[in-house]
Amino acid sequence: MSARIVSTGCGQGTIFSCTLDTLYETRLPKTRVRQSTLMLILKEISKHNLIYKKSGSVHGCGLCRGAEILMFIEDVGRNNAADTISGKMWIEGVSGEDKILYMTGRLTSEIVMKAAQMRIPVLLSRSGITQMALELAEDLGITIVGRARQTRFLIFSGKENVSFDVPIKR
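^ thats the sequence. predicted structure below, dont judge the formating
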């Protein structure tokens, strides 16, 4: 019988320990990201939240290379949106190693695991982060930027990977 870990995700999913073990064997590439790039993503992403603007009750997930939004998916579940991005990446043969994954929703350990499996080294979210997600991101070397709005954000992990190239206006 295999060991399993019951996750805290909205869908009460189950993650088998072998999946978690292989994540810890993975080392993501160190990726530097500029503050100006994060600010441009936040500006551009607002053009893609079309369903959210009408309903106010969906999550958005975008795959970005620099400030360019390559894919954007809206769904009632943030995990569903991330899974759709993952599937499109697989079908289209898109590597995650130089990408940023944007989420409107809270960053949970499940989202961090999905990013690691997609080999995406940077997560950007409009919302916050759970403690378990933070610990996992630090272990896996994923840069997490959250509470991101327009020109302001908090760096939860990987501060050494963010270069500040724009003066902050107070």
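The two ends are 57 Å apart (CA to CA).
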